[in-house]
Amino acid sequence: MIELVMNFLRKSIPASIIIAIFSGIIAGLLFGLSVPMALASQAERVVSYEEVAAQSMVQEALRLAGRSGEEGLSYITLPGIQKYDGPRFAETMPIETREAWLSWMSRNRPHDDPVFLEQRWQWAQDLVNSSELKRPEEVRAFLLAPREHFVRAVNRGREYEDTWLPIGYGATITDPDVVSMMTSTIKVQPGDKVLEIGTGSGYQAAILSFLTKDVYTIEIIRPLYIETDALLRDLERNYPSYSVINRKLGDGYYGWEEFAPFDKIIVTCAIDHIPPPLLRQLSPGGIMVLPLGPPNRQYIMEVVKNVDEEGNIILTRRDVYNGLSVRFIPFRDERGTSYSTPVSDDD
Ligand code: SAH
Fold it and tell me: For residue 79, how many C-alpha atoms fall within 13 Å in the half-sphere facing its CB?
């Protein structure tokens, strides 16, 4: 029967028409597929991850701030709701032997990848041997903060290399030795209120969350802020200490007045002077660490603020690397202009 119909069709309909009909069916199929594909890509374009995150952040910020309107949109805050005791958790971790540490980690940190654990252990030993990690508290914080979560996907495989790495938007995750040196310098005590300028990847803030329950961090690049904020939120489930990291999108030059004074301040972008607002927001007896110098070369400076009986501020400075220079990305204002005076690179 089918054959008869086919023969009839073949005789009565010219081949070109049959080809046209088949082409139509194929085109229809392709079009049918392409419509949902176009919609999908459009959906992605219109409701991008960033936009969704920005939207939810804004709403969250407004909700937490208990207000609505323009005022709340000028910056975004995420005050930590619970005060998870990162230092107390860290204290229970044995660091005397690799085996004891690994066994504690497998019980307390089942989500951490064993391959990275091995690398992290070795890395921490190197940092202790080079005296960049000083107190056991800092060693513990380093052993608890997985750098693999903060190095961006494009640098997979380089998580534990002893180097800085780009994280997009012209920013970097700092070299581990400089992170450890700066962290050791401010000698964070549990309960210290610590302010970080330059959230970047979030790695330094993550380390701080194992040293105290009160961490504040400010980032000026909006998409980077959103990306890192979303990352920290996501990681909070397995790393509850990250919930104590209060985040702000804004210019860190002016510090974070509402929460001042801070016992410790860590600046992770290069500047050729100490920002006066940060000095003002540092508690008497407080320590600030910052990469001080022109854009092409800085020295890691420890600045201790003391106030004498007459109320005079006395600053004590120390170059923690004793003459060795480092290079950080510039401390910039909202227009992107560096706060440091540019100098030529050939000196
Ligand atoms: N602490 C970061 C290092 C980031 S690099 C980490 O652990 O990954 C320095 C960061 O400082 C960049 O993200 C840069 O955008 C930020 N920054 C530069 N100027 C700033 C400013 N005025 N206020 C806040 N952050 C600033």
Answer: 9
Q: Characterize 137-158 residue by residue with b for buried, 16 or more Cβ atoms within 10 angstroms of its Cβ, and e for exposed.
A: bbbbbbbbbbbbbbbeeeeeee
221 CB less than 6 Å from ligand 1? Answer: yes
- Between CA 59 and CA 67 the distance in angstroms is 10
pTM above the 0.85 mark? no
Nearest to 129 by CA among 117, 114, 139: 139
In short, whether 331's Cβ falls inside 6 Å of ligand 1 is: yes
Of 103, 43, 77, 26, nearest in space to 225 by CA: 77
Does the beta carbon of 220 sit less than 6 angstroms from any atom of ligand 1?
yes
Atom of ligand 1 nearest to the CA of 205: 7
Contact status, residue 95 vs residue 143, Cβ threshold 8 Å: yes
Token pair for 136: 């056991």
Determine contact, residues 196/225, Cβ cutoff 8 Å: no
Rounded Cα distance between 211 and 191, Å, is: 8
DSSP 55-90: HHHHHHHHHHHT--SHHHHSS-B---SS---HHHHH
Partner residues linked to 246 by β-bridges: 216
Nearest CA to ligand 1 atom 17: 198
**Three-class DSSP category at 93:** coil
pLDDT in tens, 67-96: 333 333 334 555 555 678 999 999 999 999
Contact 267, 326 (CB under 8 A): no
- Euclidean distance between CA atoms 199 and 20, whole angstroms: 61
